[in-house]
Amino acid sequence: MKPQVEIYDTTLRDGSQGEGINFSVADKLRIAEKLDAFGVHYIEGGWPGSNPKDIEFFAQAQKKKFKHARLAAFGSTRKKGVAVEADDQVRLLIEAGTPVVTIYGKTSLLHVKEVLRCTLEENLAMIGDTVKFLKDHGKFVIYDAEHAFDGYKLDAEYALATWQAAEKAGADFVVLCDTNGGCLPGEIAAITKIAAGQLNCKIGIHTHDDSGVGVANALAALDAGAVHVQGTVNGYGERTGNCNLISVIPLVHFKMKKSCVPAKSLAQLKELSLFVDEVANIRHNPRLPWVGSAAFAHKGGTHVNAVQKLAASYEHINPELVGNARNILISDLAGRSNIVMKAQSLGFKLTNDTPELKAILETIKQREHAGYEFETAEGSMSLLIRAALDQKFVPHFNIETYHVSMRRDQRESICEATVKVRVGATVHHEVAEGDGPVNALDAALRAALVKSYPKLKRVSLTDYKVRILDGIAGTGAKTRVLITSSDGQREWGTVGVSENIIEASLEALVDSMEYALLKK
Ligand SMILES: [Zn+2]
């Protein structure tokens, strides 16, 4: 069945213009495969005329079979004063070997006169010639009308003439672009409606998020007659980014109730978002709509109480539909309900009537007052609940003594840590070096513990965050350390707080190991 809205992904081209984003050819191929499996309709792989890496990408991609998506190469109309068949950049578009070619051209009279510096007629010829040439080579041609809305506002008649030039030459799509990202949804809707009324070919929309309405603008165009939307995963892109497809896709599916990607893919939305961030080596934004870890997080006590009774009371949609999960934040504001739900999600059998609940709540409040934070430290949180529920609970190990030192010679600086750990009747004594004191301490502690607990070999530290807290309880500045650990299958967080950064780190490290030993 044909989708009512087509999804055109340009993460690999427009998205790669974003600050801090640099994809290798291998990265691009992995992302393209993931996007194809997810079910987007087009994947724009790059601009072969702008860099050799993109030529290499298309050479590799030609050997792959894509199930859902059609691959698109991106470029521009021919240069002014050059015959289209003599234009190298256009030739490279054909050599890319993709079924789809997307070219952009000028809509705005201002840009034709001031930037391109050619006559208005030459610009129309550049558009028409290039589209026709690509059609003659059997390509499906998408025409991206740059500055479509700004150009239309400046001179409607000329803007329309440029789109008609593309249409007359055989373009399959005219895509209206809010290139500078400065338009409002109302304007986008009105101009899209006019374009859809005047043109016979299909209309698409390409927006940027400079004013914070990239997604809203895309939806306004879809409402006004566009049937194709261009954007990037997680909104990657130049400046403040492109229209975020990770928001557009569920909006089209769940809110506009139009078909786009296969329905079964929606539950993989968060996974796609995480995957692309991981390949780009970017930390996932917790506040991303739909897929962020905070998207369905509940903090206020009364909200949590209500969500416990009826999930829909403070949620616009069931988080599982997009592969996300409800997250109950533990905080000063928390009532009993938060703790109960969090404890249940950590695997404890706790209800509002459990007698130990009051003590747990008290301890959490005291710790939070002292500077602890449990929102991402579910490992430390579990140990705390565990200790309250089981008075006879004995930790798997105790640190008897430790020592950390640092020395520096002309060439390098080395940190060394010594740790003496007691496990039952046995004492392990280990020394290790590291490039920092925490690193050395971690290595020594691990070396001591694996002797008794070999499963800790799989555990590694994946993230380490330090925050200086001041003004707490009138003491000197305190340090809070948050550690993320992984056993290769799942991750957990632990926390330590002290006036001494080494002490705080050790506390979080000890919790991390203890939690790893508690888990089945
Ligand atoms: Zn763009």
Keywords:
520 residues; 8-stranded parallel beta barrel; 38% helix; 17 helices; 16 strands; 3-stranded antiparallel beta sheet; alpha/beta; binds zinc ion
Describe it:
By secondary structure, the chain is an alpha/beta fold. The protein has helices at about 25-40, 50-60, 90-95, 110-115, 120-135, 150-155, 155-170, 185-200, 215-225, 245-255, 270-280, 300-310, 335-345, 355-370, 380-390, 435-450, 500-520; strands at about 5-10, 40-45, 70-75, 100-105, 140-145, 175-180, 200-205, 230, 295-300, 325-330, 400-410, 415-425, 425-435, 460-470, 480-485, 490-500. Strands 1-2-3-4-5-6-7-8 form an eight-stranded parallel β-barrel, surrounded by nine helices. Strands 11-12-13 form a three-stranded antiparallel beta sheet, covered by helices on one side. Helix 5 (about 120-135) packs parallel to helix 7. The longest helix is centred in the C-terminal third of the chain and has 18 residues, at about 500-520. Zinc ion binds near residues 14, 206, 208 and 242.
